[in-house]
Write a structure and sequence with these properties.
alpha+beta
Amino acid sequence: MIGGEIFIAGSHEGLGNNAQEVSLTDQDRGRLKELLGRYGIDVDVERFKKVSPIKVRPFYG
């Protein structure tokens, strides 16, 4: 993973290179609620896990 964020509502087999699971912030919860609500998706955002890069520049020492 090079950059960005991935939100997963469910399980995963692995995250791959340079990726870690981190806790959702209040801002993340708000963004998810707004985005899902825009499409009429009613789901508890606490089901989601957030995946983000471990290092910003993984290819540089």
